[in-house]
Write a structure and sequence with these properties.
Length: 441
């Protein structure tokens, strides 16, 4: 009886969480192609104004890598009506914060203001879209900023270029083969006209989604959106180029030398399908099972029990066209990278051969339920998720029902997907080793 009551209580609690987390939204499209999503949340007097553009590193000229990330900086320089250096001052003076980020697939800008400054946020984002000032002063200034970012976060940071080394070996044709931050040589060689052309091509209303989330009056918000965005001219209709990669059928072996490290790292990586596929979700569960925290299979076996690694982990990077599943480890002397690889492969074979236990499976379901709830726990997260589900997945409703897909995955599917993608002849083995050479900028 006690167990029944406890189970019933847990069921009611989970039901309450799921209900509380339902995100209500309204979406429509302006005549110029700008897609708009509104989410009214009166729980706190704040509002997020955000614009996500469907442009990332994969949309760049191979000889001009880094443009998308560069614009993440450049479009804070100023506009025809916001003087250079004034953008941040306006935001902070009105009690707000703002930021931007870039991936291989999209670029995202946002402000968080007290709700009584919603009109200001909309005006600023419309200024960024319609009236950006792209001149040589701004380009030169941000060029130095990006160079310093690359030195700090990549070139001079221990293990800072792992992702770059993985990408350039896993992808031979697709633009995912270069890092989002790009090449400083490419940026130095670019002309002002090339930056202006990039802006004109990609930073258009029909290549973007505007999300307004928080404490809003929906009718008034719509009026302001039409006022500030409605007259922005539609851009050219973009036809995204499709890049296909040949399947990996033989182990790729590579070495990368890092002058900032003393301990070598084993990195093994697999190319995986688009984040929009069901298999990508199954691989998310596999990654969590193997390496999510100190209770994961790899950590308990390799770090805790056998003590042959200082660190072990795995990460799945799902993107619009392809993904990557990366497992990495730092061997502890006298163990070697080969020793780590042997232990990792044994755990992968177990998943491919046997069904994971019911207990482990339920733990995975609980973990992803918790992650789903936390992803929509604040208005900033909701705004970005709404934009992402529309722009990259093509289905905003996933903000409420993506978890249902994870719940529908079976233990048998986990076994079959592991067999499909995680085989020795389908992967990269990267020896990431110390070097005495100086880092290259």
């Amino acid at each position: 009886m006690k167990k029944t009551i406890m189970a019933l209580s847990a069921s009611l609690l989970l039901g309450g969480i799921a209900s509380a987390q339902k995100v209500d939204f309204e979406e429509y499209t302006l005549n110029n192609g700008l897609h708009v999503i509104l989410h009214n949340d009166s729980s706190a007097p704040v509002v997020v104004t955000s614009v996500m553009y469907h442009v990332g590193a994969k949309d760049e000229n191979p000889e001009r890598t880094g443009f998308a990330h560069f614009f993440e900086h450049l479009l804070f320089e100023g506009t025809q009506n916001i003087k250079r250096g004034e953008w941040m001052k306006i935001v902070t003076a009105n009690g707000g914060v703002n930021n931007a980020n870039t991936t291989d697939d999209r670029t995202y800008y946002y402000e968080v203001f007290p709700s009584n400054n919603l009109e200001l946020g909309l005006w600023m984002e419309s200024e960024r879209m319609l009236h950006p000032i792209i001149n040589q002063i701004g380009v030169d200034t941000q060029n130095e900023v990006v160079k310093e970012e690359k030195r700090t976060n990549f070139d001079n940071r221990p293990y800072g270029n792992i992702l770059m080394a993985v990408k350039e070996n896993l992808f031979k044709n697709h633009p995912y083969r270069w890092n989002t931050i790009g090449s400083m040589k490419d940026l130095d060689a670019a002309t002002l006209e090339e930056f202006q052309a990039f802006n004109k091509k990609f930073y258009t209303p029909n290549n973007a989604v505007l999300v307004v989330a928080g404490q809003i009056d929906v009718a008034q918000t719509k009026e302001w959106i039409q006022k500030y965005f409605g007259s922005i001219p539609k851009g050219e209709i973009l036809k995204k180029q499709v890049f296909a990669e040949e399947p990996i059928t033989k182990t790729i072996k590579a070495t990368y030398q890092d002058p900032n490290i003393q301990i070598p790292m084993l990195v093994t990586a697999y190319r995986t399908p688009s984040m929009k596929t069901r298999d990508a979700k199954v691989l998310d569960l596999i990654s969590s099972y193997l390496s999510d925290g100190k209770s994961s299979k790899l950590y308990k076996k390799i770090v805790d029990q056998k003590k042959i690694a200082l660190q072990i982990g795995a990460v799945g990077l799902s993107e619009e066209d392809y993904g990557m599943y990366i497992i990495y480890g730092l061997p502890m002397t006298p163990a070697t990278s080969a020793d780590l690889l042997k232990e990792i492969d044994e755990e992968v074979v177990k998943i491919q051969t046997n069904l994971i236990s019911e207990k482990d499976f339920q733990k995975l379901q609980n973990t992803f339920e918790n992650q789903f709830v936390n992803a929509n726990a604040n208005v900033e997260g909701i705004a970005e998720n709404l934009a992402t589900y529309h722009l990259l997945y093509g289905d905003v409703k996933l903000i409420n029902n993506q978890i249902d897909l994870y719940h529908s995955i079976t233990r048998e599917e986990i076994r079959e997907v592991a067999k499909k993608y995680l085989n020795p002849n389908q992967r990269l083995i990267l020896d990431y080793v110390p070097s005495t050479e100086q880092a290259q900028n």
